[in-house]
Design brief:
Elements (H helix, E strand, L loop, with lengths): L2 H12 L14 E2 H23 L2 H10 L3 H7 L12 H21 L9 H7 L2 H14 L6 H40 L6 H27 L7 H21 L2 H6 L5 H21 L3 E5 L2 E5 L9 H25 L37 E3 L5 E3 L10 H19 L18 H27 L7
Parallel strand pairs: 1-5
Antiparallel strand pairs: 2-3, 4-5
Length: 459
């Protein structure tokens, strides 16, 4: 009974057929979605491996529970207690292999515009062979010559790629803010309740931003210390206020009528989040009071309990995975890829306001093809590709570098452990603070560019 389903899954792994599940009650899946889901599984598998490599807790558990652990390490020539298979250097080598895998596919799929060619078939199928290739790339990093020089050079390549990935995240946020306001504004002429929805959400977001600013002023400043905290809280708060005024100024409204406070509220909340994350990542400061050194400008919840530290680290790691997956997958859709271009103020005639506008498909309905014994597959790329294969792999290439740098605490890699992911370091502080300014600059640019280049933005 299940033989046809097994054959279809075998065709998925070893041929160009679209992947589906054996369960016939599963919801329909598009061919393009299936492909991106499989690449995401590859990416997550390697990312989880990197997290495990950076965890001394896991390393200790392996030593205690795996029989003949020391003998196995000796036979593999992996050093004492498999020291070469864990730590920041191992993460660099594994991520180097994953980055090479996605970069090669990015080059391989340049200018692929139809799903019927051989290159498109390789991109959409042959998953078993691609999985073997990924494992070979990751393992090959451990056999590179002159590894000390490689690690030194690869560190700066990873920093550049990781920061570019952050910029893509920020551009997606700006595009999301404009998209949200545009979609809800389109419903105003049909139902005035959308006015109330816009006003309510804007008020809530600004309240959160102001509350976060007050919270940081209370807990992350001190009369005798933390000068940088005071400076950046004032600068970032002032910039958020400026862009909010700019968004509703008459000169901007003339060229961009859909500009409003909702976008600036979203940007302000995210900037406050980045500011909080930066201040929390800053090395601790101490002042002398009553003959004792007192730690200042830290959130007082931390009681030092190991359970609390594990919970916070787990939440931080989950947020990291979520942000990476969102950027890798959402940025490659047809609609969201326009975030890498200058925002254009054009509202489609058939735009319809929706509460969950970001979940609406960009594609039309396609004929279903029943996979034998299993899930329905919608072949949505018969008339051409609906996303750029090359750009898709390039985003995952940058995501690989971002994972590598984040898991190893950027330039403070020597003592990096996944359990210390949220501990302070200057490199993480400056990267997150710079991200605040880049986000504000990108949003301000989308407001000003229609006024600076009006001919380019005429309908």
């Amino acid at each position: 009974m299940c033989e046809p389903c097994y054959l279809s899954q075998l065709a998925c792994c070893c041929g160009s057929a679209a992947c589906s599940l054996c369960c016939g009650c599963c919801p329909k899946i598009k061919q393009s979605t299936s492909t991106r889901f499989m690449y995401t599984l590859f990416f997550m598998l390697v990312t989880v491996t990197c997290v495990i490599m950076m965890s001394p807790t896991v390393e200790t558990a392996m030593q205690e529970n795996i029989p003949f652990y020391t003998e196995m390490c000796n036979k593999l020539n992996a050093g004492e207690n498999c020291s070469t298979l864990v730590g920041y250097s191992a993460v660099y080598k594994v991520c180097f292999g994953m980055a090479c895998f996605f970069f090669l596919f990015s080059v391989f799929t340049i200018r692929v515009r139809t799903s019927t060619g051989c290159r498109a078939a390789v991109h959409n199928g042959f998953w078993f062979f691609k999985f073997v290739a990924l494992l070979a790339c990751c393992a090959g990093g451990f056999f590179l010559p002159n590894q000390e020089r490689f690690l030194e050079v690869w560190r700066y390549v990873g920093a550049a790629g990781g920061f570019l990935f952050i910029i893509i995240q920020l551009m997606l946020l700006v595009q999301f803010a404009h998209r949200w306001n545009q979609n809800w504004s389109s419903g105003v002429k049909y139902n005035k309740i959308w006015y109330a929805a816009l006003a309510l959400v804007t008020l809530v977001l600004f309240s959160v931003a102001v509350g976060a600013l007050v919270f940081m002023i209370m807990f992350y400043t001190d009369p005798e210390a933390c000068f940088l905290n005071k400076l950046f809280l004032g600068v970032n708060g002032g910039l958020c206020f400026i862009v909010s005024l700019l968004a509703i100024s008459p000169c901007i409204q003339t060229f961009q009528p859909t500009s409003g406070l909702l976008q600036s509220a979203i940007i302000s909340v995210y900037v406050m989040y980045l500011t909080f994350s930066a201040l929390a990542s800053k090395p601790i400061e101490m002042v002398e009071r009553n003959g004792k050194n007192v730690t200042v400008c830290v959130f007082p919840y931390n009681s030092g309990l190991q359970s609390e530290t594990n919970i916070v680290t787990g939440i931080g790691t989950a947020i990291l995975f979520g942000c990476i997956l969102y950027s890798c997958l959402i940025s490659t859709t047809k609609r969201s890829s326009t975030a890498l271009q200058v925002y254009r103020n054009d509202m489609p005639e058939n735009e319809r306001a929706r509460c969950c506008f970001c979940c609406v498909d960009d594609t039309e309905d396609y004929d279903d093809e029943k996979t034998a014994g299993g899930q329905n597959v919608k072949y949505d790329e018969r008339d051409g590709t609906i996303y750029s294969y090359c750009y898709f792999h390039f985003v995952f290439f940058l995501g690989s570098l971002y994972v590598m740098m984040t898991v190893t605490n950027w330039f403070h890699y020597e003592n990096a452990k996944i359990e210390r992911l949220l501990e302070g370091s200057w490199s993480v502080f400056w990267i997150k603070m710079a991200s605040c300014w880049v986000c504000l600059f990108l949003y301000m640019w989308t407001l000003l560019v229609p006024m600076l280049f009006p001919k380019r933005f005429q309908a």
